[in-house]
Specification:
10 strands; Jelly Rolls; five-stranded mixed β-sheet; globular; five-stranded antiparallel β-sheet; 142 residues; mainly beta
Length: 142
């Protein structure tokens, strides 16, 4: 599936084209990226929408690039993004201020990972993009 086939409507799952659930989500109710090589989603997060969790699985050491863009105005509320590996206490955190993008661009070991997107309570629109490549893929900018 290529990037042009993704939908880009707020609150819509890019792979299924179905409306997103705006209930208070828990970690076990995460959006499943699974082993897909790419994924895109546009949504809102805040007290009324809950936190969003995304789960993906790497079957081998891979390079991932995740971008979470805060689509709020420049001085608007910020987003907190946390990446963690199942069974590990290590957490990687990023913050996306209004209008900015937080990026995770790393080589990760085999395993299951969870990405959590949350805000300080205010409703914040955001866009998430995910891409996975083999850790051995050549990258001229590396």
């Amino acid at each position: 599936m290529n990037a042009s086939s993704f939908t880009d409507r707020p609150g819509t799952d890019s792979l299924l084209g179905t409306p997103a659930s705006f209930s208070l989500r828990k970690k076990d109710e995460s959006f499943k990226i699974g082993t897909k090589s790419s994924y895109k989603r546009t949504d809102r997060i805040g007290d009324d929408e809950g936190r969003d969790f995304y789960e993906f699985k790497l079957n081998e050491r891979s390079r991932i690039r995740i971008g979470v863009t805060n689509r709020e105005f420049l001085f608007g509320p910020s987003l907190e993004i946390r990446l963690e590996k199942k069974g590990s206490s290590e957490k990687i955190r990023r913050t996306a201020l209004g209008g900015a993008t937080a990026v995770f661009d790393r080589r990760l070991s085999k395993g299951t990972y969870t990405l959590r997107v949350s805000s300080d309570g205010e409703s914040v629109p955001y866009r998430l993009t995910y891409r996975r490549n083999s850790a051995d893929d050549f990258d001229p900018f590396d």
